[in-house]
Amino acid sequence: MAYRQYKPDELRRLQLVTTGILGEFDRICAELKIDYFVYGGTAIGAVRHHGFVPWDDDVDVAMFREDYERFMRAAPKVMGGEYAIFSGRNTPHFPACNANFSLRGTLCVPEEFDGCPFRYPIGIGVFALDRPASNPIRFALQKRLAWLLARLVFLRGTPRPHINVPSPLGGVISGICRLAYTAMKVLHVSPSLLHRLWEKTARMAENENTDVYVDFMDRNPFAWAVTRGEAYPPLRVPFENITVSLPKEYDTLLTRGFGDYMQLPPKEQRKNHYPSRLDFGGYGAPAAGE
User: Fold this and answer.
1) Residue 290 half-sphere exposure, CB side, CA atoms within 13 Å?
2) What separation in angstroms does the CA of 237 have from each of 21, 54, 144, 227, 252?
3) pLDDT at residue 162 greater than cutoff 50
4) Cα separation of 104 and 140, whole Å?
5) Cα–Cα distance between 187 and 203 in angstroms, integer?
6) Mean pLDDT on 263-290
7) Which of 112 and 257 is assigned the larger pLDDT?
8) Looking at the whole model, is its pTM more than 0.85?
9) Where are the alpha helices (DSSP H) in the chain?
């Protein structure tokens, strides 16, 4: 699949607008005394580039489940009026199992969701990390069911996911995805129901006595395993023109998830999420004469 590329000034504008959203998120968490940390490629960017990975266009942050729940309850009371929180809990056809902390009046619609009723605004992904079941059989069920439900939530929003598998297998998988989308639409399967089932599965071990948390949106949840001792107290590090929270043991976590994360990938692997619709809503406009 050929990936479209941003114009350099367009990408930079998106990065800076998104940085502003991250700054508001960071302010809210500080005010509410809620812990979080930058996650995935955003954490790599903070360590390797002190900001965005140069070709990247999105931001992800993570929270332990109990902190995520506090944020979802309390943030709407203290966040600026130009911001909104979207998730499967409050937004019909939201096509993911994480939340999106967003800037109202903007659009950044991924190509695969061009036909989805929910129109993504510019925002940051907020991920909840959950406890894995200690019983191996129960964990295997939790992992497989969570992965399946997360894919169904995604497919309920689009019949055209990006399939990074060469043909003919890629074509077969694409056909299966279209059939699954059509079947759920014909049967009126509720996206909110799928989200509730995913969340129930991800949280099935939340009362167990373990300090390990994982990402059940991933096929291999333990690739992103983290304990509170590895995450906190966080390091405060520069990210573009703001400061954000990075896990205390960031090298351990990034090596666990990415391997040699300080090595730049080959150019052909430097992909982003070029949108089908991008509307800044007047935010981050270049100064006169630029």
Assistant:
1) 8
2) 17, 17, 36, 20, 17
3) yes
4) 39
5) 27
6) 81
7) 257
8) yes
9) 8-32, 41-48, 65-78, 136-157, 169-186, 191-202, 228-231, 250-258
